[in-house]
Amino acid sequence: MPAPVEARGLVKRYGEIVAVDHVDLTVAAGDVYGYLGPNGAGKTTSLRMLLGLIKPNEGSVRLFGRDPLVEGARALQGVAGFVEEPRFYPYLSARKNLELLAAYDGGGARERIDSVLDIVELRDRAKDKVRGYSHGMRQRLGIAGALLRDPRLLLLDEPTTGLDPAGIRDMRDLVRRLAEQGMTIVLSSHILAEVEALCDRVGILRRGRVVFEGALSELRSAGGGTYALRTTDQRRALELCEAHAGLSGVRQDDGAVRFSAPEEAVASLSIALGDADVGILALVPHMPTLEELFFDVTESDEADRAPAGAAQAGS
Amino acid sequence: MSGTLTVYRWELRKLLSQKRTYIGLLFATAIPAIFVSTVAARNHGPQDVPFGRYVLESGLAVPLVLLTFGAYWLFPLITALVAGDIVASEDHNGTLKTILTRSLDRAPIFAGKALAACTYAFVALVAMAVVSLAGGAIISGFHPLVSLSGTTVSTGHGLVLIGASFLVYFVPILGIAAIGLVFSTIARNSAGAVVATLMLSFVLQLVAILPGLGGIKPYLLTNQFFAWHGFLRTPTDWAPITHALWVCAIWIAASLAAGVVVFVRRDVAGG
Ligand SMILES: Nc1ncnc2c1ncn2[C@@H]1O[C@H](COP(=O)(O)OP(=O)(O)OP(=O)(O)O)[C@@H](O)[C@H]1O
Ligand SMILES: [Mg+2]
After folding, report:
1. Angle at Cα A275 formed by Cα A273 and Cα A280, nearest 5°?
2. What is the b/e burial string over A271-304, where b = at least 16 CB atoms within 10 angstroms of the residue's CB?
3. A56 and A171: one domain?
4. pLDDT one-digit tens code per residue, A241-278
5. I need a labelling partner for A177 at 20 to 30 A (CA). Which of A291, B152, B218, B246 fits?
6. Does residue A169 belong to any structural domain of this protein?
7. Reported confidence tier of residue A25, pLDDT bands at 50, 70, 90
8. Which alpha helices (H) appear in chain A, and where do they start and end?
9. Do residues A188 and A248 both lie within one domain?
């Protein structure tokens, strides 16, 4: 069976701004995929392209093997979700809104209305007009609207934004429950802890580009560690470190030489130091937290990562 | 087809739940009521409008006077009020993304909306016909009518001609609705689309009276609002009626084609 989401080389430009810049996304069946990125990174824009709401300038989307640009609504079979805030007709009741959506869905959607209202705990408020709904209630109604489609793939754009702590907990419990039932879920977020709590795979987006994709555990190891080195001859140690292959960000501060490196490079460095008669007093690894890694990949200012369009627009 | 009908049914339900629907219908019924009461109070009909002189002699003249009257802004306004709103308001409220991520393609959604906008204009037109006929009956009673050719038309035949006139009058209204839909798919808010539709109808009326542009006058959409005069001549003059039908058909087809193309292709980036 084709993968729930397979996007290749997605590009979306808004004038000078490259909102999404050659993004590849693959989400396998059963994944709970965290789509992470700071504000303006292009998460919503990517999800809009997945849902067929906007056309990519380049690249293609396949949902269960179907292209929304070619097959239209048929490509959304088994797919549900919303981008940004879910929106409803304010002058209709929640139930009427769901009845409308169920009519547009066809199939057995109408029979599911009561059960989805129960899932999001809105059954007793269902006859109230959506006009009077709080933000949290609308968010829950959005989930109800998506579940009406009985989806195999659920796309959620920052579903916990603006919710109170209890609302956040309930939303996360719900996502976890749906995932346990085998639903594939793509969840965008800028909160790392949320993704850490819910997702097994992440894609990290920065200024429209995917700067990391893989399991969270890979993110931890890919970041490697930073090390602090104290020796009998710091001047010589610094020279050796700078010359040693595999080390990066070598600098001296606080009386220690600091650098980042994978473990093999550290091992060979210690031998090189010994060979050069430099005695090691301390070689202390510092493992970054996920939070630090997130900032590392989303805020590093390496020129090759800056998308051309966005950089010009900003200055 | 069933998708279009589903959308059509829900668009009608949504119209019934919205205030703006009733504002248009209020215009369509209040204006003939005000006209009739003014005529009755002053015991004097308008002299410079076809059939205006006869409103106190036969109530059948009242709906015909209002047809002339309604062509300038009343029907363009009532039609635009819903046609201009029907897509743009969804864009503005962000519900477009809600309905476009279900199981219906964009084309049937557009078609259902177009049908609903036309239905609304039709209901408003019928409401005006009913109120103006009733008002005419109250102030003048139903009596034979003097046609545009000066012949006398019996009451029964007059009613048939009025029905036919309203039907022909509905065709350019469909044109206005189609144009309203185009603006509605392009504009990001409904006020803009409604105003643009009205402005276009004013511009077409202005073009019609500009010197030197007489040649294009017969092809203007707004000019077709007077085709019904053909029914009130003896013998019936079919030329303006068939002319109006094909001119309007072109306006409607071109507008709907443009509207559906824009709607199917456009990005839904708002909301
Ligand atoms: N319709 C639009 N017109 C112009 N620019 C847009 C449009 N939509 C998005 N952008 C731009 O594209 C970039 C990505 O926006 P997007 O909404 O996808 O970010 P995001 O990752 O969802 O951010 P957030 O966390 O704030 O929701 C931003 O620079 C934004 O200004
Ligand atoms: Mg966003």
Report:
1. 35
2. eebeeeebeeeebeeeebebeebbeebbeeeeee
3. yes
4. 999 988 888 988 878 999 988 888 999 999 999 999 99
5. A291
6. yes
7. very high
8. 43-50, 68-71, 94-105, 113-119, 135-147, 165-180, 192-198, 216-222, 234-243, 263-275, 290-299, 308-314
9. no
Q: Is residue A164 part of a domain?
A: yes
Helices (H) and strands (E) in chain A, counts: 12, 13
The answer to whether A149 contacts chain B (CB < 8 Å) is: yes
Q: What is the pLDDT of residues B61-92, one digit of tens each?
A: 999 999 999 999 999 999 999 999 999 999 99
The domain in which residue A257 lies consists of 225-286
Inter-chain CB pairs, A–B, below 8 Å: 84
Task: Report the C-alpha gap between A114 and B8 in whole angstroms.
Answer: 25
Which CATH number do you get for residue A276? 3.30.70.250
In this structure, the answer to whether residues A157 and A268 fall within a common structural domain is no
As for how many domains chain A has, the answer is 2
Q: Across residues B171-200, what is the average pLDDT?
A: 95
Sort out which chain A residues have CB atoms less than 8 A from B103's CB and list them.
73-74, 76-77, 104-107, 149
What is the distance between the alpha carbons of residues B115 and B125, in angstroms, rounded to a whole number? 15
Task: Name the strands in the sheet holding A184-189, side by side, starting at the edge strand that comes first in the sequence.
Answer: A79-82, A153-157, A184-189, A32-36, A201-206, A209-215
Is position A40 within any domain? yes
A214 and A276 belong to one structural domain: no
Residue A204 sits in the same domain as residue A229? no
- Asked if the Cβ–Cβ distance from B101 to A53 is below 8 Å, we say yes
Residues 6+ apart with CB under 8 A from B125: B28, B75, B166, B169, B170, B173
In terms of Cα–Cα distance, which of B127, B173, B159, B165 is closest to B31? Answer: B127
What is chain B's length? Answer: 271
Q: Is residue A314 part of a domain?
A: no
Q: pLDDT digits over B127-150, tens only?
A: 999 999 999 999 999 999 999 999
Count how many Cα atoms sit within 13 Å of the Cα of residue B11 in the half-sphere of its side chain: 27
Buried b or exposed e, range B231-251, using 16+ CB within 10 angstroms: bbeeeeeeebbebbeebbeeb
**Cα A309 to ligand 1 centre (Å):** 14
* Residue range(s) defining the domain that contains residue B93: 2-264
Q: What's the sign of the alpha-carbon dihedral B261, B265, B270, B271?
A: positive
Q: Is residue B122 part of a domain?
A: yes
Q: Are B4 and B112 in contact (CB under 8 A)?
A: yes
| Predicted complex ipTM | 0.91
- Residue A85 touches chain B, beta carbons under 8 Å: yes
Which is nearest to A49 in space by CA: A83, A99, A85?
A83
End-to-end CA distance of chain A: 46
Q: Which residues of B touch A88 (CB under 8 A)?
A: 95, 98
